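Notes from hallway chat w/ T.B., transcribed later so I don't forget. T.B. wanted the structure written out for a chain they're using in a teaching module, and asked if we could keep both sequence and structure tokens in one place. Agreed to drop them here.
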Amino acid sequence: MGAPQAGLFRLVMQLMMPTHLHAQTFHGLAPGPRLIVLGGVHGNETCGTLGIERALDELQRNRLGIVRGTVTFVARANPLACAKGERAGERNLNRNLGPKAHPQDFEDGVANVLCRLLAAHDILLDLHSFHTPGEPFAMIGPPDNQGTLEPFSRAAEEEALALRLGARRLVEGWLDTYAEGVRQRLARTRPDARAGLLGTDPDYGVGTTEYMRRVGGCGITLECGQHDDPMAPEFAWRAIHNTLAHLGLSDEAPPAARDDHRLLRMCEVVDRLHEQDRFVRDWHSFDPVRAGETIGLRADGSEVRAGQDGFILFPHPDATPGNEWFYFARPSERRLRG
């Protein structure tokens, strides 16, 4: 890119740089819980934005009512990423999320506002989509515990909500799996830039739901389908209705808990190390693998094999080297309370 083109690019970026975060809040006339619903944390994941906008239209037309508590909708939680139509504005908002005394990038500025919003609510529903085809699934936090990584005391509330969002598949174990991935990353890399420092920080695994739990709330990440699946916005919209009804914020009939759910536990993250690392087939989330089965090939020809029977999650064939290539999960023995 020549100097004139680079200057024009910088000018365009400055003109499109958002200056605020748009949130819309509705207060029921009776007391109740405080819910916040996010879409557009990643700008190329539009299902949450579309689902929220549909719900907002219903509220404005009095086809949906908030009768108790408080609901805040943020349709574009990362407005720069949404304007670009890309996963990130300047970095991934859903990593290393927390207030920053000295913001270094656009997402740091967003985080300072978004974290205040999260802390002012009790429950979070964060709507996402994923890269490759697959069915929707919900990601929940840990069981109640007093540990140091992710202490928690509201697991029963999360479980009950997760079973009513519409997803048959549920996944746990994000933060401790990511922390183990960070330990592996530290063993092979020497961070020499801010992105590297973030990638080797255990808190880099902290996103919206993890931060929500840190400030005393609870939250669920709902993966509504593949990015371009036309049914993903419909799934997001229905999940919003189910959440409002389950929490008693609307006067719609509460949904029943799914009794056909399957819970998996993440147990490993594998990074892509080189741009020539490649999968041996088109993997989709929840594809089963057998112990010893080849999943991918490294640039040097070495094989990446499954260490045990399990399932592929979040396969990303074009992941930036040094970042998550895929996750591995196994059936969980945890019993959920509906």
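Follow-up for T.B.: The longest strand covers residues 262-272. Might be a good example for the class.
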